[in-house]
Structures are given as structure tokens and as C-alpha cells.
Amino acid sequence: MKPNRAKVELPLADVKEGGSELPTGEAFRPEWIDFTHGIRVGNLEPHERITQILKYHLESRHHTPFITDRWGRGVFWQWICWLPRANRAAKPVSNKVNFGCAKLFISADAGRKVFKSGLQVERGYASGPEADQPWGLRKDFDWHRLVKQCREGTVFDRELRRLVKKEGFVATVIGEQPGGGLVEQKTITTTQVRAALRKCSPQFWAGFQLYYPMPEREVRACTGYELVQSVAGVFEEVIPAMNACMDVPLQFVSPTSSIR
User: Fold this and answer.
1) How many angstroms separate the CA atoms of 66 and 81, rounded?
2) How many angstroms separate the CA atoms of 66 and 50, rounded?
3) Separation of alpha carbons 119 and 229, rounded Å
4) Helix 224-243 to helix 155-166 angle, to the nearest 10 degrees?
5) Cβ atoms within 10 Å, residue 5
6) Rounded distance, CA 66 to CA 61, Å?
7) How far apart are CA 137 and CA 205, in angstroms?
């Protein structure tokens, strides 16, 4: 999904009462995607932060609150996600933790020099001492619905094949291994996803990602607004697959009815 393709037109800049600028993405700069340090979030005005920009877009598009979470600290964060609050609230056991929810994410892969945006579903720890922590697998995690969708003929199967085979997305199962480190196994079909999931040790973290990889050269060729539009377009593409994994699916609302 190159910057000039399948863009989602974000609303143009506006000003709230009191003079604070809305986070439409026009103030974002592509150099804030830093493949050495991470994604810059600190020392910026609120309307410049990609956390606020994409949250504003998602809430305008779907007319429902989103929760922002991240991995990292300080000025640069390595991974950022957004998840619908209603889906978390619907969980009888895990309604106070983000871990069990399907989420939209971005990350800057320093090793491969690739900017990723898309869908992530986490299993967490299925057994062992870590399973008693908030990141331990619970019966109401979206992970279970993902596993059930991993068969031919499901909505998730259709969307996975379309995005990977036709749109250039990457589907990968990620698992921590004894001794440390992550192992990724790329997949194309839901049969391959299910087989890869079985290989992930229950005593270590595991997850699934469906993302669009944007090489550093493409990131640098964008304006900040084009980059944000491209991420919004990626999110639009993966939401049907995300909906298949959630208790409360997202609704699509006309972009012309954005929250102001």
C-alpha cells in the first residue's frame, strides 16, 4: 500500500474552541518514524503525536472510543496500539486489561528498516508462572476467536488470503522461545496459521500479526500527512479480519460525519 494508493482522506485541519489544533495528521513529520530509536511521541505538541492523530481518526471513523497502549518509554516508543474500548468492556474476565483484545498497531522494525501497521492478536502465556499475570491467557481473550477462525471458508480466511496474496500484507505468528528471542513464521493461509500456533510454547508469549510493511525508503518519500493517510488505509483494510476476532465488532461510519 504505497502512499498514493488506497488512501483514507483524513479531515483537514480545524481549530477547537480555545485555539488548540485538531490532530488531523497535517503536522506530522515522517522523520518521527526513527528506525534507530523508535517512533517519536515525546517533546511534541498533542496534535503532532501519532498517538493522538490515529486515535482521532479511528474515533471519527467508527464513532466509538479507543484506548491507546504502547511498549516503550521516554521520547521514543517501539510499538503503539489502539483498541476499541467497547470490545474490552464486553469481556467478563479481562475487561480491565488490554492484553486480551485485538488491536491495531504500528511499529518501526529497526533490524529490517520496515515500518509496520496492521492488526495484532496476542495469546500471552498459556501455562507456567507468567500465566497468572495479566498477560496470561484467559477464556475471554480474542485469541480464542482467532483460533476458531483459522479454517477454510471463514471471514478471517477470506480476508487473510486477500490481503496477503493481493495487497502485499504479511501474516506472521510470533513466539518467544526458551533462552530468549522471538521467532517469526510467515503464513498465507489459515491452515498455516493454525499449524504455526501449535508450535508456540505455551510457557512463553505468542501472538499473530497481519501488517503492511513499508520500507524506510517509502517512509522517507512521504509527507507526514501522506504517511498518516497510508496507515489509516491499512487499518481500514484489516478491520474486517479484526472484527472476526472481537466480541464487539467495529462499525463503519461515513468519513463525512467525523467528530469535530
Assistant:
1) 10
2) 14
3) 17
4) 150
5) 10
6) 11
7) 9
Convert the pLDDT of each residue in 113-161 to its tens digit.
999 999 999 999 999 999 999 999 999 999 999 999 999 999 999 999 9
* Burial of 152: CB neighbours in 10 Å, binned 0-12, 13-18, 19+: exposed
Q: What is the pLDDT of residue 255?
A: 58
> Which residue shows C-alpha cell 500465566?
131
**Spatial separation of the C-alpha atoms in residues 3 and 234, rounded to whole Å:** 11
Structure-block grid coordinates of residue 10: 483524513
The dihedral through the CA atoms of 100, 102, 107, 112 has a sign that is: positive
CB 235 within 8 A of CB 102: no
pLDDT at 6 exceeding the cut of 80: no
What would the grid cell of residue 179 be? 533462552
Q: Which is it for strands 206-215 and 114-122: parallel, antiparallel or unpaired?
A: antiparallel
CB 120 within 8 A of CB 91: no
How much is the pTM?
Answer: 0.90
Q: What DSSP string describes the chain?
A: --TTSS---PPPP-B-TTSPBP--STT--GGGEETTTEEE-SSS-GGG-HHHHHHHHHHHHHSS-EEEEEEEETTEEEEEEEEEHHHHHT-SSSTT-STTS-EEEEEEETTTTEEEEEEEEE--B-SSGGGGSTTB--TT-HHHHHHHH-STTSHHHHHHHHHHHHS--EEEEEEE-TTS-EEEEEESSHHHHHHHHHTS-TTS-EEEEEEEEEEHHHHHHS-HHHHHHHHHHHHHHHHHHHHTT-SSPPPP--GGG---
**Chain segment 41-77, per-residue pLDDT in tens:** 999 999 999 999 999 999 999 999 999 999 988 899 9
